[in-house]
Amino acid sequence: MSRREILEKWVKESDFVPKTTENDQELILSLLVTLNEEKSLNAEFYVHLEKLNNFVSVFGYIEDFRVSDKNRTKFFEVLNSVNLSISMGHFELLDEGQVRYKIAIDPGKKEIETCLLNGMLGAAHHWLEEYHEKFIAY
Question: For the chain, first and last CA: distance in Å?
Answer without folding.
Answer: 45
